[in-house]
Design brief:
The protein is mostly helical and about 160 residues long. The chain has a domain of about 110 residues. About 50% of the residues lie in helices and about 0% in strands. It has 6 helices and 2 strands. Strands 1-2 form a two-stranded antiparallel ribbon. Helix 2 packs antiparallel against helix 3 and helix 2 packs across helix 4. The longest helix has 25 residues. The radius of gyration is 21 Å and the shape is extended.
Length: about 160
């Protein structure tokens, strides 16, 4: 017979560190706010089903609203930036953050079957490795952006262009 897990007693809590993450710098909102916002949007755009554990989400509506929320964090004036690149960077970060934290939570949830948890862990690990590869692999950049000029800005004598 399995023994029921016992909870540790809470000790005096220290104040959490001040958020200094990239996402907080870019949007004014910390990581936990963004995870909670994605969760809120999924709940908002979900309907109950016969399965009490899983609703049916209108994912496209949740993501569309998330895009709008991200867009509202863009600077109104002053800072110059490429809106397409900023949206891609912030949106991909928020979705990757949410997915990585949620998939980890599900993998470590003792209410789920161990086989499912192990499979989820393996899937999250392969996803994370694929993400790192997608971010770092330069081998197809010339094909992604034909006509783009390439030169490291860290060479001894880089070309100092004029286009911004």
């Amino acid at each position: 017979m399995k023994k029921k897990p016992t909870r540790l007693k809470k000790t005096k809590q220290q104040k959490p560190p001040v958020e200094t993450s990239w996402i907080a710098y870019m949007t004014g909102r910390p990581r936990k706010w963004w995870v909670a916002e994605v969760q809120r949007l999924i709940s908002k755009h979900s309907m109950p089903t016969k399965d009490p554990h899983h609703g049916q989400t209108q994912t496209e509506k949740a993501v569309a609203e998330l895009v709008s929320t991200v867009h509202k964090t863009f600077p109104k004036k002053g800072e110059r930036f490429d809106g397409n690149m900023r949206m891609a960077a912030v949106l991909s970060y928020v979705l990757a953050l949410w997915y990585s934290r949620l998939s980890r939570a599900k993998s470590y949830d003792p209410r789920r079957p161990v086989a499912h948890r192990k499979a989820g862990y393996a899937h999250r690990l392969s996803w994370a490795m694929a993400m790192v590869l997608a971010l770092m692999d330069e081998s197809e950049d010339v094909e992604h952006f034909p006509g783009q000029n390439w030169e490291t800005p860290f060479s001894d004598h880089p070309t100092d262009g004029y286009f911004v």
